[in-house]
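Note to self: keep these together.
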Amino acid sequence: PAALSFGLRLLIALLVGGGLAAAVLWGFRKPIADAALPEKQAIRQSVAIEAFSWRATTFAFENDLFADRFVELNAPRLMEI
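Structure:
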């Protein structure tokens, strides 16, 4: 409507667009994951997040090879507990 200022109309459009994008991504999350390559699915299934905080995340690996490779790639960023 013309009675609303341009800024308010823009804000409403951005909120509606963001909500629609979030709904589409949420709705297609499972089909997107199912369509992943077998290699990517194997990686996703080989690790689980045990604990999460903004400071640290704890992973549980099913495969020692993936765990060793993860440590190798992320050595400078890892925290020892």
